[in-house]
Amino acid sequence: MVDKELRERIIAMVHREVVPAIGCTEPMCVALCTAKATEKLGCRPEKIEALLSANILKNAMGVGIPGTGMLGLPIAIALGAIIGKSDYQLEVLKDLTPETLEEGKRFIAENRIAIKQKEGISEKLYVEIICTAGDKKASAVIAGGHTRFMDDEACLKGEASKTSKTSGTCSADIADVPLNLRLVYDFATTTPLDEISFIMEARTYNMNAAREALKGNYGHNLGKSIERPLSKGIFGDSIYCHIISRTASACDARMGGAMIPVMSNSGSGNQGICATNPVCVYAKENENTEEELIRALMLSHLTAIYIKQSLGKLSALCGCVVASIGSSCGITYLMGGDYERICASVKNMVANLTGMICDGAKPSCSLKITSGVSTALLSALLAMEGKCVTSSEGIVDDDVDKSIHNLTSIGADAMCKTDDMILNIMTSKEN
Fold first, then answer.
1. What is the 3-state secondary structure (H, E, C) of the chain?
2. What is the rounded average pLDDT of the residues 64-91?
3. What does the pLDDT look like over 250-267, one tens digit per residue?
4. What is the pLDDT of residues 372-401, one digit of tens each?
5. Which neighbouring-strand residues pair with 114?
6. CA–CA separation, 379 vs 354, rounded Å?
7. What is the signed CA dihedral for 340, 346, 347, 348, rounded to 10 degrees?
8. What angle do CA 83, 87, 88 make, to 5 degrees?
9. Which residue among 47, 72, 275, 303 is the one 20 to 30 A from 322 at the CA level?
């Protein structure tokens, strides 16, 4: 068993990384920063300037903003100033009403918002908001994490790594625990149940999002489509069908702008959904115990957190790759797999999905999530059959942690030019 002090540090890290969020986390992050700058200003701004990293721009351009029926950053920024409360963190816009939505639309129509790419920064997650009213001016900066505010001294020096420990919206004083897959597995499978049962909140949030999505029309309605007779004629009424339906549905709702909170992972609601729903559906239909589900969910979420430690919060690699690796580990565990089988499922995932690009948050993310979850199931099944991609094939290594770091090196470093090209394509299209 992992010793108590280390368990407590890991639990604190999970609490920091697995949090509720309404809507896509990138525009919510910008709205959060706007709310903080507005609070510092002390009144409603007359003008707002947003300076954003390329990855924030990419992930916020085409996604629905909950409760608005609108896409993208302008309405998120306007509402962040009008109704946003920084104490709400990534649920910053939950006080939205029809009246305040109309105020936000007027704010945009009056050309009060300027959005630009921040030049000369290496930080991929960077948001700087400058609010002015008359001769008053206030700013706020988030960098390195979706709720990590830089303090004023760091802002002046341009130090994106220095975060405020007193902002009330981040846990920057909680140091990362350097993880490896063996530690992740041992923690998830041996920690006293009462210490990790909180992870079941992820099931409550994310399965509820899936149920709500099936009642409405969101995004491309992929989850609902999988439930229709034509699809069932192809997939059957199977565990596989139910898993991809419940996972895609929650993503449909989130990307389509539903006012439904989800439990995110490492700053991404889609990653939280992908690390949760496949595991929950499989556990229910396989009749696993509640303890097995709790441990599988913790294994899934903590694996995703581990991979993001070396990949970074934002990258050119689609986050569903990361979260699907986590869910494959969780499902393998629910199938009765031991550590060696779980290592095999990870290697099978790395051999398959490496290189899937992130071209921003948008309704079609549900398609990518479905690809990731399908591969997670296939990788788990192969692992349970004793089948594993070998080190003589591609980027897979005999050492599972090296395999993971090969994946993240490609996503964080080798795909940087890909990221630039993606943003250039997205911003150059004629509307």
1. CCCHHHHHHHHHHHHHHCCEEECCHHHHHHHHHHHHHHHHHCCCCCEEEEEECHHHHHHHCCCEECCCCEECHHHHHHHHHHCCCHHHHHHCCCCCCHHHHHHHHHHHHCCCEEEEECCCCCCCCEEEEEEEECCEEEEEEEECCCCCECCHHHHHHCCCCCCCCCCCCCCCCCCCCCCCHHHHHHHHHHCCHHHHHHHHHHHHHHHHHHHHHHHCCCCCCHHHHHHCHHHHHHHCCCHHHHHHHHHHHHHHHHHCCCCCEEECECCEHHHHHHHHHHHHHHHHHCCCCHHHHHHHHHHHHHHHHHHHHHHCCCCCECHHHHHHHHHHHHHHHHCCCCHHHHHHHHHHHHHHHCCCECCCCCCCHHHHHHHHHHHHHHHHHHHHCCCCCCCCCCCCCCCHHHHHHHHHHHHHHHCHHHHHHHHHHHHHCCC
2. 92
3. 999 888 888 888 999 998
4. 999 999 999 999 999 999 999 999 999 999
5. 49
6. 14
7. 110
8. 65
9. 72
Tokens linked to 402: 């090296």
**Looking at residue 107, what is its pLDDT?**
96
